[in-house]
């Protein structure tokens, strides 16, 4: 059996109607309305970002390869500890290379997460993470200037 044929003009009209119908269906205000926005990013119950596109949280709870990209917001989101109970101390060198935007404190003491704003999108600095139960370690931040 042969497949039915559709003229290019008719196919284009059908596709246009389908796209318009699909777009209109997404414009409802009722409870069935959906959003393509990412949910808020939270760490240990604290919201660190409400960006509609979501953010990447860099895990520096153990030594790792260098961090080379920022979130689209121009901020660096850091997960410092795998536990919400046990925090770490955080510093960076040189101190002028970034500023603290917000932190998430552990239930005990120290930090679980931090959001930093580097001085520029091509900044290079060294994070020093000091866990309560082990030796400090460094994580290099060598930003490549990408948004």
The gist of it:
The protein contains one helix and nine strands. By secondary structure, the chain is mostly beta strands.
Please describe what this structure looks like.
The protein is mainly beta and 147 residues long. The chain has a domain at 41-142. 12% of the residues lie in helices and 34% in strands. It has one helix and nine strands. The strands form three sheets. The chain has a four-stranded mixed beta sheet with strand order 3-4-7-6, with no helix packed on it. It has a three-stranded antiparallel beta sheet with strand order 5-8-9, with no helix packed on it. The protein has a two-stranded antiparallel ribbon with strand order 1-2. It is globular. Residues 1-30 have low confidence and may be disordered.
Structural class by sheet pairing and helices: mainly beta
Name the helix and strand elements from N-terminus to C-terminus, one letter apiece.
Answer: HEEEEEEEEE
Unreliable sequence segments: 1-30
**Radius of gyration using CA atoms only:** 23 Å
Major pleated sheet = 4 strands, mixed
- Overall mean pLDDT stands at 80
C-alpha geometry = globular
Give the termini distance in whole angstroms: 53 Å
Count all strands and give the number.
Answer: 9
Enumerate the strands of the largest sheet in spatial order, edge to edge or round the barrel.
3-4-7-6
Strand content of the residues, in percent?
25-35%
Task: Please give a handful of descriptors for the protein shown.
single chain, 147 residues, mainly beta, four-stranded mixed β-sheet, three-stranded antiparallel β-sheet, 9 strands, 12% helix, 34% strand
